[in-house]
UniProtKB/TrEMBL annotation, chain A:
Pfam families: Aldedh (PF00171)
Ranges of residues in domain Aldehyde dehydrogenase: 26-243
Species name: Kitasatospora terrestris
Protein name: Aldehyde dehydrogenase family protein
Signal peptide: none
TrEMBL record, chain B:
Top-level division of the source organism's lineage: Bacteria
Keyword Ribonucleoprotein assigned: no
Organism: Kitasatospora terrestris
PANTHER family, alphabetized: ALDEHYDE DEHYDROGENASE-RELATED
PROSITE patterns hit by this protein: ALDEHYDE_DEHYDR_GLU
InterPro entries assigned to the protein according to its UniProt record, in alphabetical order: Ald_DH/histidinol_DH, Ald_DH_C, Ald_DH_CS_GLU, Ald_DH_N, Aldehyde_DH_dom
Keywords, alphabetical: Oxidoreductase
Active-site residues, Swiss-Prot/TrEMBL: E272
Entry protein name: Aldehyde dehydrogenase family protein
Biased composition (Basic and acidic residues): 1-12
Sequence similarity: Belongs to the aldehyde dehydrogenase family.
Location of region: Disordered: 1-20
Length: 300, 492
């Protein structure tokens, strides 16, 4: 006749994902994350400028190994992410549903699309050099070949709005950058960071080397300007940067990036109108590549 | 070896060699140069709305060649409006018809190439041998190459029916006035854009002559507009709200300023900026070819080349041997009258540029590098600088880090391939690099490691319209040439 006590849920402590590890913010601070209706969901680490610099360091350290691995191997690693995400489909469906205020069916479709996006980019790794490079028929006795190479460290302001932004949007900006051998530091959607932070757990168990993807939650107004002005960041994806975000405003970030002549992908004109289920095309894949052309005389 | 080195040092420049008789090209071949020029807007040569005029001088004689208009905001406005007006029809024209115009331009450039080469040499100071044999053939080749793309854009890899951007504002430098014009205008027109181009303030004449060629080709009015002036005109053009695309070739500081200016706009931007290329010579390199490559790398076009091989990285074990051979070769370089067909090194483009080169070389000496130049006489008038070599240069020296943009070579040494890579990559620039070695696997390894957009192995300073050119890091973004060069002018 003992009373059955209702089981108490085990809450999750969400952490940053930096250098393949899950640190708390160096600030020791968190902020409240709520669902689309304003209900408290969890506390997310409040990533700071220092966290951002640490993440850039980790990303830089990972460039050599990741860019140096074969395209074939990178493809397998990306595919492995899809496998691991597939295994956690229910968890991500719940997280996306609460984050974006969607029904279970729609949220599941978005998670499926995110899984498929990893598969799409997994297939790109060993093809991009063939569509973006090639032999140039120069007028002379020369062997002349253009090959795309990764730019290096890419700073990303993940989508902060738009249909499917919290997971599919994030995957849509992270996967193309790493498919080509770059490493990334990404500022997750500030208002809906939980799918992003959980994606860190997927990446950590997917053969993606530590430091290749670094995920920060917190205020984009702290993280984004640090990425834009950082001397050791080579490119900037402003997918989620918007016009009115104080020091994190898109135009200001772009101006700041000009100091080091970073390659910048600008945000869409209306980021909240973005639909991340749209076919991604090759823009992001090609934006974080440099073309290297090698000449050599031919003769006997 | 050391002994031999001393004898080379003391050897007068051309002793033991026969002298060439002068072989001057006739300045008259440049055609008539007017005393003053306005702009080319909407298919007409028009006066500037302002009264300010600048003068362009022959840097070899310091004689004023012509005065030309300092483009005002109003001039830029007029030119952009003309380009905007022309855009609708030009972009709607079938690619095959646009192609014909570009083919016509290419042909007329070939027909008039002697005239253009001489005019270029007079206005810029570069040797006629180079304008005749390098610049002009490449200029024509670029128009031919991009002409062929105009009706094949669906196959360029940017999706079916890629769209032009609109009006392109283009600002080009003085080191290759016509070639830079071709690099900018040919792909812009092939893709259906219209252009407003501002040539450099020291070399406007061939761009204005090119305007005549556009008229001869029957190019629709307003498709190409030329507005002359200095940096103020350039800034007005890049800032103009009705320009959709900005293309700039020039210094990294100006490129940075333009990138800042365009932040937050929807204008597409491509930048070709500075460089400090490492030309790396290994102990197994074919020495004679390497010496030619080093000379071509830094003394071509008086070193006024963004991709010039201005840092020689030589493997320590062959340093003495290579430097002896290099000095011997430098002793045979002929510096002087650009219109003499035997001239290797012409005039420095302007007094300002000469002052900059002079200042940086003095800094090189004051920082402890050892300076060497062959004995050679320089003309009494005009702007000249002896081919110069600095040895004992360290990584920290300013002449090893900053772009000098003149005939000045800094020599550094290395021991291992890994050290060569470290040193080569140790600048904010990443435009070009050279590798000299007989070992194929080493070439591929090095080429892979170098952060540079163009890598020349066992050759240097080769260009071709089919071949993408452009830099990593602070050497800018985007590529010019080849299929890659189309991207800058398409909405992709």
């Amino acid at each position: 006749m003992s009373d059955v006590m209702p089981r108490l849920d085990v809450f999750k402590t969400y952490k940053l994902y930096v250098g393949g590890k899950f640190p708390r913010s160096e600030s020791g601070r968190v902020y409240e994350v709520t669902d689309a209706k304003g209900q408290w969901l969890a506390n997310a680490p409040l990533g700071t400028r220092k966290d951002t610099r640490d993440a850039v360091l980790a990303a830089r350290a990972a460039v050599k190994g990741w860019a140096g691995t074969t395209a074939y191997n990178r493809g397998q690693v990306l595919y492995r992410v899809a496998e691991m995400l597939q295994g956690r489909r229910e968890q991500f469906t719940a997280e996306v549903a609460t984050a974006e205020g969607l029904g279970a069916k729609k949220a599941a479709a978005l998670v499926d699309a995110a899984i498929d996006r990893w598969v799409w980019y997994a297939g790109w790794t060993d093809k991009v050099a063939q569509i973006a490079g090639g032999a140039n028929p120069v007028a002379g006795p020369f062997f002349n070949l253009s090959t795309p190479e990764p730019t290096g460290v890419v700073g990303i302001v993940a989508p902060q709005a738009g249909y499917g932004y919290s997971l599919l949007g994030l995957v849509s900006v992270v996967a193309p950058a790493i498919a080509t051998g770059n490493t990334v530091v990404v500022a997750a959607a500030a208002g809906a960071p939980l799918p992003a932070l959980s994606l860190g757990e997927v990446l950590a168990t997917s053969d993606v080397p530590g430091g290749v993807v670094n995920i920060l939650s917190g205020k984009t107004a702290d993280i984004a300007p640090t990425l834009a002005s950082h001397q050791d960041v080579n490119a900037l994806d402003l997918a989620g940067a918007i016009a009115a975000d104080g020091p994190g405003a898109a135009a200001q970030l772009e101006a700041s990036a000009a100091d080091t002549l970073k390659r910048v992908v600008r945000p869409p004109v209306d980021p909240s109108a973005a639909d991340w289920t749209d076919a991604p095309g090759t823009e992001r894949l090609l934006s974080f590549l440099e073309t290297k052309t090698v000449w050599h005389p031919m003769g006997i | 070896m050391a002994k031999n080195k001393n004898t080379v040092d003391e050897q007068p420049a051309k002793s033991g060699l026969f002298e060439y008789a002068p072989a001057p090209e006739s300045p008259a071949a440049a055609g008539d140069i007017a005393t003053s020029y306005g702009h080319f807007i909407g298919g007409e040569f028009v006066d500037s709305s302002g009264s300010e005029a600048l003068k362009t001088v022959n840097p070899a004689t310091e004689q004023v060649l012509a005065s030309f208009a300092q483009g005002t905001d109003e001039d830029v406005d007029r030119a952009v409006a003309a380009a905007r007006k022309a855009f609708a029809d030009w972009s709607a024209l079938p690619g095959s018809e646009r192609a014909k115009y570009l083919f016509r331009i290419a042909r007329i450039i070939q027909e008039r190439s002697r005239e253009l080469a001489v005019l270029e040499s007079i206005d810029n100071g570069k040797p006629i041998r180079e304008t005749r044999d390098v610049d002009l053939p490449l200029v024509a080749a670029h128009f031919f190459y991009y002409a062929g793309w105009a009706d094949k854009l669906d196959y360029a890899g940017y999706g079916a029916a890629p769209k032009p951007l609109g009006v392109a504002g283009q600002v080009i430098p003085w080191n290759f006035p016509l070639l830079m014009l071709a690099w900018k205008i040919a792909p812009a027109l092939a893709t259906g854009n219209t252009v407003v181009l501002k040539p450099a303030e020291t070399t406007p004449l061939t761009a204005l002559r090119f305007a005549e060629i556009c008229r001869q080709a029957g190019l629709p009015k307003g498709v190409v507009n030329i507005v002359t002036g200095d940096g103020r005109t350039g800034a007005a053009l890049t800032a103009h709200p009705d320009v959709n695309k900005v293309a700039f070739t020039g210094s990294t500081p100006v490129g940075r300023a333009i990138a800042k200016q365009l932040a937050g706009t929807r204008k597409k931007l491509s930048l070709e900026l500075g460089g400090k290329a490492a030309n790396i010579v290994f102990d197994d390199a074919p020495l004679d070819q390497a010496v030619e490559g080093i000379v071509n790398g830094i003394f071509f076009n008086q070193g006024h080349v963004c991709c010039a091989g201005s840092r020689l990285l030589v493997q320590e074990s062959i340093q003495d041997e290579l430097l002896d051979a290099l000095k011997r070769r430098m002793g045979t370089l002929r510096v002087g009258d650009p219109l003499d067909k035997n001239t290797d090194i012409g005039a420095i483009n302007s007094a300002e540029q000469l002052a900059r080169i002079t200042a940086l070389t003095e800094i090189g000496e004051s920082e402890g590098a050892e300076r060497w130049s062959p004995a050679c006489e320089l003309p009494g008038t005009g702007f000249w600088f002896k081919p110069t070599l600095f040895t004992g240069v360290s990584q920290a020296h300013r002449i090893a880090q900053e772009e000098i943009f003149g005939p000045v070579l800094s020599v550094l040494t290395f021991r291992t391939p890994a050290e060569a890579v470290e040193k080569a990559n140790n600048t904010p620039y990443g435009l070009s690099a050279g590798i000299w070695t007989e070992k194929g696997s080493r070439i591929l390894w090095m080429a892979n490691k170098l952060k540079a957009g163009v890598v020349w192995a066992n050759t240097f300073n080769k260009f071709d319209p089919t071949s993408p050119f452009g830099g990593y890091k602070e050497s800018g973004y985007g590529r010019e040439g080849g299929r890659h060069g189309l991207e800058a002018y398409l909405d992709v």
